Amino acid sequence: MTPRRRAGQVLLALLLAGGLVGCGSEAGSDGGDEAGWPSGEVSIDTSGLVYAIGDTVHLGDGSTVAVGDEIERFVLGGGGVFYSTDESGPEAGRYLAAAPLYYSDGTGKATRLAESAANPRTSPDGRYLGFVDTISGTRDEFDTPQAQVVVVDLESGEEVARTSEAMGDPGSDDLADLYEDAEPGALVVTDDTATYDGVGALVSIDLASGDVSSTEEADDELFRLPPYDDRRSPDGSWRIDDVDRDYPETHDRLASSDGQKVPLSGVPPIVDLLWWVDDTTAAGIAVDGGFGGDGFYADGTSAELVRCVVPSGACTPVDGTAGTTVHVPEGTVDGTTFELPDGS
Question: Quick one: where's region Disordered (predicted)?
Fold first, then answer.
């Protein structure tokens, strides 16, 4: 369904926020009290279908967290939401699509934690936050800071690691040129390890010890995101059967590991399933209408988020998503922003 993906998504750079600031500040202000990393028990539920509209993150259990700022990109972890807006950070750190990084638990003002950060990720258990700091490193002769990968333990509020391993040499490299060509910084955080794509190396950080190691062996599959991964559910029992037909447009299907097809029900004729929410729930876009010759939504078409479950194939559109800009957490899919028309 590759031609239709252009209509279902507005692809934004996956890499976002970086760079610690010396003092935290409230969103929309120029300064504030000294602010460290948030700490405490991991209390936010990261399970289920999570998405943001406007300044509000909708959690899988039906509850919401309002951060007070228009969200452009976000992840969940610790006790709240780490997010960026359309605000730009310092010019020297404007590579890898970096932007200021904020934190909110939904109570009171948000706190700015990083001045210029890219590619935020959190671990599945919500304990660890990782990102690329694009402003705090040693600068090359052209005033470009060396990228640093930062991992924070959100229970203790302490940095597990801050490293520039395999991020070029500010003494000899033109870092801006290097980063434009190599595009380092793709990051995956599990409950035990943070791994990132450096310049000519794969770098791993042990989250228990903070030890950093690297290898020159590439692993492109590690950083591949839906819908360009193997389309299988987390437990491997099901897969998304991507239907790629020109006309008439139709919807994807679900299939078991032994090849049994599961037709979808309860949705419009076009469903583009993109990722797995859990072992039995797939999510994507349901489209009521059609597409123009340019591959974008035709006039009068509406679209909304949808979730479909196995083994029944029953699908449920997500109320309130048609006619909005929907963001899903960074690292969920390749392109985390969806412009969904309402049919008007």
Answer: 215-244
Boundaries of domain holding 326? 238-339
Do 293 and 210 lie in a common domain? no
Domain boundary among 196, 223, 250: 223
| pLDDT, tens digit only, all 344 positions of the chain | 433 333 333 333 333 333 333 333 344 333 333 358 999 999 999 999 999 999 999 999 999 999 999 999 999 999 999 999 999 889 988 888 899 999 999 997 899 999 999 999 999 999 999 999 999 999 999 999 999 999 999 999 999 999 999 999 999 999 999 999 998 999 999 999 999 999 999 999 999 999 999 999 878 788 988 888 778 999 999 999 877 654 345 667 899 988 888 888 988 878 889 999 999 999 999 998 877 777 778 888 999 999 999 999 999 999 999 999 999 999 999 999 999 999 88
Asked which of 197, 223, 249 is the last residue of a domain, the reply is: 223
Query: Up-side HSE of residue 18: CA atoms within 13 Å toward CB?
Result: 31
Do 249 and 105 have their domain in common? no
